[in-house]
Amino acid sequence: MRVLLALGGNAMTNADGRARSEDQISAAEIAMDAVADLVVSGVDVVLTHGNGPQVGNLLVKNELAAAVVPPVPLDWCGAQTQATLGNVLMNALDAALARRDTARPSAALVTRTLVDADDPGFTHPTKPIGRYVSADDALPMIAHGEIWEDRGEKGWRRLVACPEPLEVIDAPAVLALIEAGFVVIANGGGGIPTVRDDAGVLRGVEAVIDKDLGAALLARSVDVDILVVATDVPHAILGYGTPEAAPIGRVTVAQMRDHAAQGHFASGSMGPKVDAACRFVEDTGNTCVITDLASILAAVRGEAGTIVSAN
User: Fold this and answer.
1) Burial of 51 (0-12, 13-18, 19+ CB in 10 A)
2) Is the pTM of this model over 0.85?
3) Catalytically annotated residues
4) Is there a smaller number of Cβ atoms within 10 Å at the N or the C end of the chain?
5) What dihedral angle (degrees, nearest 10) is formed by the CA atoms of 164, 216, 15, 78?
């Protein structure tokens, strides 16, 4: 069995959301304990991860240094966080496997995702990223060509494109590593947003890719049997925050789409995970599970989480 586990970027911070190096290492150790259990059980594991807090840290550095050095573009931020988090995850996984008297090679791959240069997000960016700053602090970034918006009392915030992911460009390399026996960490943060010009030349662009849609695309691209979307709750919830709140167990993709259409899943949290789960199931006929880290092994066995299937 081949499983892709998608870790949220907040799974790589502490419970308070801090993303110091020691916080990220501790969080990775917890996550890789669950992954090691999967590996020991005989599952071929592919990993992907979010990088929102980590890119956020880099953006703050950009802002503070903008009057001295040019800001690092978003595709570079994505590449840097893929490499850094890949290193942290590999070290944590090696240690977790050693505690189980098991050895399995791992590899972290800096991974590009193709987007359309004509995606409407590039002409009308709507995705807010990073922290709120004063108008004075936003001016140096605007001078470097970035788009910032006055958000009222909170201050100014940067807006970027969030284009649809079309292709995991480096999927063949991911597949080759999987087939060679590696636990592969790939397509972090949804992949490095990349466009191809008329001459076939690739270049990174200033954008972010939804990490959950990137995970679903990677899962399809490397032929996984189960996509597990790891979050901070054991199930998706109907009527979240109301007295009628109820966990979702087994559900068909058609039922899940209906729940989404009724507005049960918030656009900034569970909504993208549900959309990614549905896309994966619709495109492959395989299963996606939304659950927390503690339930991953049971989820792969079909015993826990919100299990979305074709029928």
Assistant:
1) buried
2) yes
3) 9-10, 127, 211, 273
4) C
5) -50
